[in-house]
Design brief:
The complex is a heterodimer. Chain A is of the alpha/beta class. Chain A has eleven helices and 16 strands. The two termini of chain B are 37 Å apart. The radius of gyration of chain B is 23 Å and the shape is globular. By secondary structure, chain B is mainly α. The chains are: A alpha/beta, B mainly alpha. Chains A and B meet through helix 2, strand 6, helix 3, helix 4 and helix 6 of A and helix 10 and helix 11 of B.
C-alpha cells in the first residue's frame, strides 16, 4: 500500500485557553488512502469543524501529529501546505466580476512565480481541473452569475488546481438544493476514484453520505469517534447512538431516519413493488407502525397488480391521496 | 444514485492531457477588452495632462504645451516659464495623487472585502490630518517655531513626516487589532472610531488656533495640487512611487484575497504579512497625499469602482495599472473643473471631487446587488 494521503497518530483536537486546554476529540488514529472518499458525520457542535480545522492547520492540534502525503504538518509553510491540501468552505463567496476560469486560476497561487504569471503548463492544470469537475460549460461565465451549485463546483476545481493530495470540504452542500447535493457528492466520489485524491467531506446529509462514502467518520456525543465502512458503522449501531431524538429513529434497514409513530395503530401492507413501498410510506406518515404479521386490530392494505390498493373493511379509492385520507380517518377512529 | 467505478489513476501529470476542447480554448488569454481599456486610459491620461498643463489663469494652446514638454519653442517664451515653474509640477502632482488615492482605496477594498473602504473610512486620513494640524496649528509654540518659517523645506519635510506618522499611528493599533481579529468588519469599525477620536483632537487644536493659522488650515482643508512645487516633488514623488510599487508587486496576493482570507490562506498566502505590507503601503500613500494636497475626498473610494466597471473584471493584474491611469485622469479632470471660474480664482478641489465622487459611490452601491464588485 502506498503512503497514506492523511495519517493521524495520537491526535487530540480542541481549544487552548489560559486555564489549560479542552479536548473535543482525543487520541485519534486514522489513515486515509489516496482515492478514498471519507464523509465526516455527527450532530452539530460535536467537534467536526474542529477536526477539519486541525487537519487543515487552521488551528494547532493539542497533541499528536498529522501527516499529509507523508509530510508532517508541523514543519511546513502555508505555501507548502497549499500544494498538499485544497480546501472548500461552506461560505458563499462573492468573488466579483471575473470569469469562472480566472477563479480556478487562483488555485495556482502556490505554484506561481512572484509576479503571478501562469505558464502554459499552469493553464494545462487549470483546464484539467475544470474538466475533472465537468465545468467546461461554466468556464467562460462570470462567477457572480453562477448558481450556488455551479459556484461550489468551480471552487472545487480551484482547489484541484492546487494539485493537492488531499481535498477537504467543510459542508460544501449546505446551501445547495437536493439534486445539486446528490450531484456534488457523486462528483466527489468520481474525483477521488479517478484522480486518486483523498477527499474528506463533512456533511449533514447522513443518508446521502452513507450511500456515497467509502469510509465514514462518525463523531458521537461524549467525544466518541468511529471510523469504518458505512455499513459497518450502521451495523454497529453507532449512527443511532450519535443521532437520537424523541421523535426520530434511525432505521438501519433503510439507512434513513423515520419519525417515530405513536405506535397505537398497526398496519400491514400486502403485495410488492413501488405501490407497496409508497403505501407503507403513507401509513407511516399517518402514525401507523408497519408490521409484517397479520394480527387482530391490524389495518391490512393490499396492493394489486395495477398498483392500486384496497383495504380489508371499508371500500376505498385507488390513489394514494385517497389512501392517505382513509388512513387518517381510520387512525382518528382507532385513537378515539 | 449511480456512480461509475473508475479504476484509480494517478493525479494530474504534466503533458498527459489531450487536445483542449473548444469550451476551454482561448480562456487562458486575457480578454482584448482589458488591453483596449488600458490603451484608451493611457491616451486619455496624455490628453488630460496636456489640458491640465494648458489651462489656468493663462491659457496655453495644447500644441504649445506639447512643444514645451518636448523641449521645443512655444509661441510665447513666457509660457515656458509658466509651464515649467507652475503647471508641470501641478499636473504631475495631480497624476500621482490620483493614482496614490486610487491604489490605496483599491488595496483597502480588497483587503477588507468592503466596497466602501478607503483611507478616509479607515481613519488613516484623520491620522494624517492630526499630523498636519500639529505642525500647522502648533506653529506658535516652541516646537512649531522651528517649522514656522513659511513652510520652507524643513517645514515640508515636517508636514510630510507628521502626516505619514499620523497615518501610521492610526494604522498601528489597527494593524495589531487586525492581526488578532479575523473579521475585516471589526477592523473597519475600529478604524472609524479611531478616526472620530482623532478628529476630536484636531477640532480642539483648530479651536485654539490664531486667525492666520486658521486661514492656512482652511486652505489646506480645501484640497489643492498646487502646493507641491519642484522643491517638494523630491519628497512627494518617491514616497508615492514606493507605495504604488508595493501594490504592483502584490497583484497575485490581492487576487487571492478576492476569495476572502480563509481561502487565500488555504491557497498559500501568508495573510498576516500581506495585511501588514498592504496597510503600510496604503498609509504611506494616503499620508503623503493628505500632507501635501489636503484631505481629498471620494477619489480613493470612487476610482477602483469606475476601473472595475470599465474593465469588467476584479483581476488586480489589470486593475492596478487601470487604477493608476484612471486616478491620474480623474485627478487632472477635477483640477481642470476647479479652474472653471476662470481668472477670478479656483473652486476648492474637495468640492469638485465630492461632486464627481459622491454620485459614483451612490451608483456603485445601487448596482452592487448584481455582484459587480467584491464585498
Amino acid at each position: 500500500m502506498s503512503t497514506p494521503a492523511i495519517e493521524a497518530t495520537g491526535l487530540s483536537v480542541g481549544y487552548r485557553s489560559r486555564g489549560g486546554s479542552r479536548a473535543v476529540l482525543a487520541d485519534l488514529d486514522f489513515a486515509v488512502q489516496p482515492g478514498e472518499l471519507v464523509c465526516l458525520l455527527g450532530p452539530n457542535g460535536i467537534g467536526k469543524s474542529t477536526l477539519l480545522r486541525t487537519i487543515s492547520r487552521i488551528q494547532p492540534p493539542l497533541a499528536g501529529r498529522i501527516r499529509l502525503g507523508g509530510v508532517d504538518l508541523g514543519g511546513i509553510t502555508q505555501h507548502q501546505l497549499a500544494r498538499l491540501l485544497g480546501v472548500v468552505l461552506t461560505e458563499r463567496v462573492q468573488i466579483g466580476a471575473m470569469p469562472a476560469y480566472r477563479v480556478v486560476e487562483l488555485g495556482r497561487y502556490a505554484h506561481l512565480d512572484w509576479a503571478g504569471r501562469l505558464t502554459a503548463a499552469d493553464h494545462e492544470v487549470v483546464r484539467w481541473a475544470i474538466r475533472a469537475v465537468g465545468a467546461e460549460h461554466l468556464a467562460h461565465r462570470d462567477s457572480s452569475e453562477l448558481s450556488d451549485g455551479e459556484r461550489q463546483r468551480i471552487m472545487i476545481a480551484r482547489a484541484l488546481a492546487q494539485e493537492p493530495a488531499v481535498l477537504l470540504l467543510d459542508e460544501p452542500t449546505a446551501f445547495l438544493d437536493v439534486p445539486s447535493r446528490v450531484d456534488l457528492m457523486g462528483l466527489l466520489r468520481t474525483l477521488a476514484r479517478r484522480e486518486g485524491i483523498a477527499v474528506v467531506v463533512s456533511s449533514h446529509d447522513l443518508e446521502l453520505a452513507l450511500r456515497t462514502a467509502d469510509t465514514v467518520w462518525l463523531v458521537a456525543p461524549g467525544g466518541k469517534f468511529y471510523a469504518g465502512a458505512p455499513e459497518d458503522i450502521v451495523q454497529g449501531g453507532h449512527v443511532a447512538e450519535a443521532f437520537h431524538g424523541e421523535r426520530i429513529r434511525f432505521r438501519p434497514e433503510e439507512r434513513a431516519f423515520r419519525l417515530v409513530g405513536e405506535g397505537r395503530c398497526r398496519a400491514l401492507v400486502e403485495g410488492e413493488g413501488l405501490g407497496a413501498v409508497l403505501a407503507a410510506a403513507v401509513l407511516e406518515r399517518e402514525g401507523y407502525e408497519i408490521v409484517t404479521e397479520r394480527c387482530p386490530e391490524t389495518l391490512v392494505v393490499a396492493i394489486d397488480a395495477r398498483e392500486g390498493w384496497r383495504s380489508e373493511g371499508p371500500a376505498a379509492g385507488t390513489s394514494f391521496a385517497a389512501l392517505a385520507s382513509f388512513a387518517r380517518s381510520r387512525g382518528a377512529r382507532t385513537a378515539a | 444514485m449511480t456512480t461509475e467505478i473508475v479504476p484509480p489513476l494517478p493525479r494530474y501529470r504534466r503533458g498527459e492531457s489531450g487536445a483542449a476542447p473548444d469550451a476551454l480554448a482561448g480562456l487562458s488569454r486575457r480578454p482584448a477588452r482589458e488591453f483596449t481599456v488600458l490603451a484608451v486610459l493611457l491616451a486619455t491620461l496624455g490628453l488630460a495632462f496636456v489640458l491640465g498643463v494648458g489651462l489656468g489663469s493663462v491659457t496655453i494652446p495644447p500644441r504649445d504645451v506639447v512643444a514645451i514638454l518636448l523641449g521645443g519653442e512655444p509661441e510665447r517664451a513666457s509660457w515656458t516659464i509658466i509651464v515649467e515653474s507652475v503647471r508641470l509640477p501641478r499636473a504631475l502632482t495631480a497624476v500621482m495623487a490620483g493614482a496614490a488615492l486610487g491604489i490605496a482605496g483599491l488595496q483597502m477594498q480588497t483587503l477588507l472585502r468592503n466596497p466602501l473602504a478607503d483611507p478616509y473610512v479607515l481613519g488613516i486620513s484623520s491620522g494624517a490630518s492630526l499630523g498636519v494640524a500639529l505642525v500647522v496649528l502648533a506653529s506658535g509654540t516652541t516646537a512649531g517655531a522651528i517649522f514656522a518659517g513659511g513652510f520652507g523645506l524643513g517645514g515640508d519635510v515636517a508636514v510630510a513626516v507628521a502626516a505619514v506618522v499620523g497615518a501610521m499611528l492610526v494604522l498601528g493599533p489597527a494593524l495589531v487589532i487586525s492581526a488578532r481579529v479575523t473579521s475585516p468588519a471589526t477592523v473597519l469599525i475600529v478604524g472609524l472610531m479611531f478616526g472620530y477620536a482623532i478628529q476630536a483632537f484636531v477640532t480642539v487644536l483648530v479651536a485654539g488656533a490664531s486667525p492666520e493659522q486658521l486661514q492656512r488650515w482652511t486652505a489646506w482643508g480645501f484640497g489643492s495640487f498646487t502646493a507641491v512645487d519642484w522643491s517638494k516633488l523630491p519628497i512627494f514623488a518617491p514616497i508615492v512611487l514606493a507605495g504604488i510599487a508595493i501594490a504592483a508587486a502584490t497583484t497575485k496576493q490581492l487576487n487571492a484575497l478576492l476569495l476572502g482570507e480563509a481561502y487565500a490562506r488555504s491557497m498559500g498566502l501568508n495573510t498576516r504579512r500581506m495585511r501588514i505590507a498592504t496597510m503600510a503601503g496604503a498609509s504611506l500613500l494616503a499620508g503623503i497625499v493628505t500632507a501635501f494636497c489636503g484631505p481629498i475626498a471620494f477619489l480613493g473610494v470612487a476610482i477602483p469602482h469606475i476601473a472595475r466597471a470599465l474593465l469588467g473584471t476584479s483581476d488586480h493584474r489589470t486593475l492596478v495599472p487601470a487604477v493608476i491611469l484612471l486616478g491620474g485622469v480623474l485627478a487632472l479632470a477635477a483640477q481642470i473643473v476647479a479652474l472653471l471660474p476662470g481668472s477670478a480664482g479656483t473652486l476648492p478641489l474637495n468640492a469638485v471631487t465630492s461632486l464627481i465622487g459622491a454620485p459614483v459611490v451612490v451608483f456603485v452601491i445601487l448596482r452592487s446587488r448584481r455582484g459587480a464588485f467584491t464585498g
